[in-house]
From TrEMBL:
Protein name according to UniProt: PIH1 domain-containing protein 2 isoform 2
Protein family per UniProt: Belongs to the PIH1 family.
Taxonomic source organism: Macaca mulatta (Rhesus macaque)
InterPro entries: PIH1/Kintoun_subfamily, PIH1_N
Coiled-coil segments on the chain, per record: none
Xref: Pfam families: PIH1
GN (gene name): PIH1D2
Domain PIH1 N-terminal span(s) in chain numbering: 4-69
Length: 179
């Protein structure tokens, strides 16, 4: 259950997410797994509470927002008196307010939460994927040379493949997979 909270002048909503400790420990060592856990939690929150969340996030140096006691109470289902801040959350921040708050405190990123019914279905995307059929580029076949190197007994030792890719000047531009 989302819990509205205030600290100083900030208003925010806290939603507890619990993972198996072994999963969390493995994710601490692997950044990809850590990102996947965060994205899964965000998707679950969006679906369960009908929120639209910004998928950009910033991991702060402190661990939790609020007290461990409050988190335990929420996880165990104990009801506590909480201040209802839904009215404060409904008021929209102006662009100037967002800009001034991020300028004064660069570590603070205001999150805008919109219910799914508030988001228009015909929103124009900022980034549009253009299919390759729209771009008329002549595909050049790479020049290659296949060579089998033999040992002193004329048994095949290794296979060498040299490929010249048009427009590629550095190996760092290539994503190579050999199987």
């Amino acid at each position: 259950k989302p819990e509205d909270t205030t600290e100083t002048s900030d208003a925010y909503m806290v939603i507890d997410v619990a993972y198996n400790p072994d999963v969390l420990q493995a994710a601490e060592k692997n950044q990809v797994e850590k990102n996947q856990l965060i994205q899964m939690a965000m998707k679950c929150i969006e679906e369960k509470f009908q929120f639209t969340l910004s998928h950009s996030y910033h991991i702060t140096k402190f661990r939790i927002k609020g007290s461990i006691q409050r988190m335990k109470q929420n996880l165990m289902g104990i009801q506590t008196d909480s201040i209802d801040l839904r009215e404060k959350m409904r008021r929209e921040l102006t662009l100037g307010q967002i800009r001034s708050s991020t300028m004064s405190n660069p570590d603070h990123f205001p999150q805008l939460l919109l219910r799914k019914d508030q988001v228009s279905g015909k929103a124009v995307c900022l980034i549009e994927e253009i299919s390759s059929t729209e771009i008329q580029v002549e595909i050049k076949i790479p020049a290659y040379e296949l060579k089998i190197v033999h040992d002193h007994n004329e048994k095949p030792l290794k296979t060498e493949l040299k490929v010249e890719l048009p427009g590629i000047n550095s190996v760092s531009l290539c994503d190579l997979s050999v199987s």
